[in-house]
C-alpha cells in the first residue's frame, strides 16, 4: 500500500455492500430527504437566530456529520431490539450521499447569498451610494425581487404586526434563479458522471471525505454498531475532542474556567512584519480529515504555502502590486489570485488531457459510434453528454438574458467550469474540507475583457451572478463528485440515486428559501448578522458602481501573472509524472494561494508531522491502527459542536458561542 493510503484502500472496504443485502431503497431516499431538511433548519437556526457555530462552511458540513453520527447510533439501537427494521449499509450511504448535496444549500452555501445579495439591491440603496442612478434602471426586473410596498424593507427589518409575508415579490425571481440553479446542477452532475470512471478507476483519487463517511457506515456481520465506532483508539479520539468542547462549555457560565485553545474565533499570528499572517489555532475538524490524505500531498501543501508566504512578503516589502484588489471573494492580492488561477487552469487542462481516451469513449458512446459499458454509472453516457450540452445552452442563455454580453460570457463560463472542476478535483484528491478558488470567474472575465468595452447594463447583469458565488466552494460540483463516488458501493438500483439527488436539490432549495423568508420577515434579516445578509450585497453593488464610474482596460499585467502561475504548474506537473520519486505533488501549488489555506496550514503541518512519525515508526499497520483515533476526533468534535448549540439555544439564544467555523 502507498504511504498516503486512505480508508478507501482498507481491504474491509473492498467488499461490496450488496453482500449485506442492501440496495438503494425508497425508504432510504425518504429518510435522506427528511435528514437534509432537518439539517438545513438546524444550520439556518444556528447562523441566523442563535448565532452559534457556523455548521456549513466546509465541503463535509459538520452539521451533516453530527446528524449522520446520531443516525448511526440510533440505527444501532434499532438493530439491537428490532434487527429487521434497521437500515442496511447501502441505505445509510444513500442518506449520506443525499446529505452531501443537501447540506450545501443553506446560509453560506446557496440560499443565503441568493436572498442576501438580491434582496440588498433595493434595500441598501442610498443617495450616497448612487445605486438608483447607476444600477436600478439597468436591471432586468424579472431577476430581482421588488421593494413594492416595502417588501425588502420588511424582509431586512421585520414585518409589522398584522401584515402578511409578501411571498409574491419573491416568487417570480426565485423561480428563474431556481431554474438557473437546476441548469447548473445538470451541467455539473453530468460532468461528475462523465469523469467518474477516470478519477476513480484510472487515476485512483483517494476521496478522503467520502472514504471517512463510508468507513463510518460499514459494519461487520453480527455487529450492532459500525466497526469504526468501536475500540479504544476511537473512543480516545472521541473523548479528546468532545471533552475539549465540554470543558470550554463550562467557560460559558464562569470566566474562571481556562479555555482550551481549539476552535473558536480566529487566532492570527504575524511572524515577520509585512509578510502574510498565519492562523495558528488548531482546527480538529481539519486535522481529522487531513490524516486520511497522502503524506506527500500534506507536505506539498505546507511547503508551497511557505513559498507563497515568502513571495508575498517580499512583494509587500518592495511594494509590487498590479492594480486594484480582486474583491471579497478572491484572495488578498491580485498577484496571488491570478497566479493561483493560472495553476488551477493547468490542473484542469492536464486532467482533461489525461482523460482524453476516456472522454473519447464517452462521447463516441453518446453519439452511437461505439459501445461502452456505462451500466455502473448513475446516468448513461448518452444522457450525461446530452444533459451537459443542454444544460450549458440553458445556463449561457440565462446569463445572456440577464444582460451579460457574449464576449464576457466567452471568458466567464470557461472560468466558472475551471474553478468548480478544480475545487472538486482538489477536494477529491486531498480531502481539504475548506478549499476555495483563488479568484471568481467574474473577476477573471472583468480583467480579461476590461470594463471600458462594457455598458453599465452589462456590469449590472454580471453583478447579479455574485448571488451564487457560494464563497468559491464550487456550488454543486464537489458534493456531486462525492455522491457519485459513494454510489460505487451499490450494485443494484444505483441509478435511483440520481433522481434522489435531484429531489434533494429542488425540495431542499424550495424549503430553505421558504424558511429563510419566514425568519427574515419574523426577525429581520439584518439581525442575522451573517456575511451574506450584512456585507455581501453592499460590497457587490458598490464594487459594480465603482467599475462603472472608473472603467479600465484589459489587464496585461494580470495575464502575465496568470502565465507565470500556469508555467510553474506545468513544470511541477512534468516533474511529478517524469520522476516517480519527486517529493512535491503539484496540487500543493494552487492550493497554497487559496485564502482558506492560511486558516488550515498550521493544522495540516501538525498532522503531517504526526503521520510522518507514525509511518516511520510503525509503517502502514500503525497508520491503519490510528485511523479510528482520528475518526473519533471527528465524531467527538461534531457532537461537541452540536452540544454547544443546544447549550446556546437554551441559555444564550442570540448570543451564542462560536465554537466551529473556518
TrEMBL record:
<feature type="transmembrane region" description="Helical">
    <location>
        <begin position="289"/>
        <end position="310"/>
    </location>
</feature>
<feature type="domain" description="DUF6784">
    <location>
        <begin position="561"/>
        <end position="649"/>
    </location>
</feature>
<feature type="transmembrane region" description="Helical">
    <location>
        <begin position="408"/>
        <end position="428"/>
    </location>
</feature>
<feature type="transmembrane region" description="Helical">
    <location>
        <begin position="176"/>
        <end position="196"/>
    </location>
</feature>
<feature type="domain" description="DUF6785">
    <location>
        <begin position="25"/>
        <end position="524"/>
    </location>
</feature>
<feature type="transmembrane region" description="Helical">
    <location>
        <begin position="336"/>
        <end position="359"/>
    </location>
</feature>
<feature type="transmembrane region" description="Helical">
    <location>
        <begin position="95"/>
        <end position="123"/>
    </location>
</feature>
<dbReference type="InterPro" id="IPR046711">
    <property type="entry name" value="DUF6784"/>
</dbReference>
<keyword id="KW-1133">Transmembrane helix</keyword>
<dbReference type="Pfam" id="PF20580">
    <property type="entry name" value="DUF6784"/>
</dbReference>
<keyword id="KW-0472">Membrane</keyword>
<protein>
    <recommendedName>
        <fullName>Peptide transporter</fullName>
    </recommendedName>
</protein>
<feature type="transmembrane region" description="Helical">
    <location>
        <begin position="529"/>
        <end position="548"/>
    </location>
</feature>
<dbReference type="InterPro" id="IPR046712">
    <property type="entry name" value="DUF6785"/>
</dbReference>
<feature type="transmembrane region" description="Helical">
    <location>
        <begin position="629"/>
        <end position="652"/>
    </location>
</feature>
<feature type="transmembrane region" description="Helical">
    <location>
        <begin position="497"/>
        <end position="517"/>
    </location>
</feature>
<keyword id="KW-0812">Transmembrane</keyword>
<feature type="transmembrane region" description="Helical">
    <location>
        <begin position="379"/>
        <end position="402"/>
    </location>
</feature>
<feature type="transmembrane region" description="Helical">
    <location>
        <begin position="589"/>
        <end position="608"/>
    </location>
</feature>
<dbReference type="Pfam" id="PF20581">
    <property type="entry name" value="DUF6785"/>
</dbReference>
<feature type="transmembrane region" description="Helical">
    <location>
        <begin position="55"/>
        <end position="74"/>
    </location>
</feature>
<feature type="transmembrane region" description="Helical">
    <location>
        <begin position="20"/>
        <end position="43"/>
    </location>
</feature>
<feature type="transmembrane region" description="Helical">
    <location>
        <begin position="560"/>
        <end position="577"/>
    </location>
</feature>
